[in-house]
Design goal:
By secondary structure, this protein is mostly helical. It has helices spanning 14-23, 39-49. The longest helix has 11 residues, at 39-49.
Length: 54
């Protein structure tokens, strides 16, 4: 398991996130967060835009 911690509304490490998932052949992503109304939807949309099952 790898944990990405983000500090902005959208991940400042999008490319690192995408590369990690593709390099490890990960197709499904589970996203959790402390401030669900803010962080989770944004990261979920980003993950979906990168074509991962979220």
């Amino acid at each position: 398991m790898h944990i990405f911690i983000k500090k902005l509304k959208n991940s400042e490490k999008v490319k690192e996130f995408e590369n990690h998932l593709k390099e490890n052949k990960i197709e499904k992503v589970v996203i959790v967060g402390l401030t669900t109304p803010h962080c989770v939807p944004t990261t979920t949309r980003m993950s979906d835009n990168l074509e991962f099952e979220t």
